[in-house]
Design a protein that fits this description.
- With about 70 residues, this protein is of the alpha+beta class.
- The chain has one domain.
- It contains 2 helices and 3 strands.
- The chain has a 3-stranded antiparallel beta sheet with strand order 1-2-3.
- The longest helix has 15 residues.
- The chain is elongated.
- The model has no long low-confidence stretch (mean pLDDT about 90).
């Protein structure tokens, strides 16, 4: 029931060092090793947020918080 909407710019993550780090964290968290070796199947993106809106349903009007970056 928690909701977060992030507005910002997105770009594909291509840095090998970052991809290796993300892969290790993904394995640690989900016990699954994704294969990002093929660029056509690599789906990792970096988000540079400008603003994030967050709230808890069903009381959005009472819990809405905006984060500015």
């Amino acid at each position: 029931m928690d909701t977060v909407i992030v507005e910002g710019t997105v770009e594909r993550e291509k840095g090998l060092r970052m991809l290796k780090l993300l892969n290790a964290e993904y394995v640690r968290k989900y016990a699954y090793k994704p294969d990002w070796s093929n660029e056509k199947h690599q789906i990792v993106f970096r988000v540079r947020p400008r603003i994030a809106h967050a709230w808890k349903a069903p009381r959005m009007h009472r819990t809405l918080v905006n984060f500015l970056f």
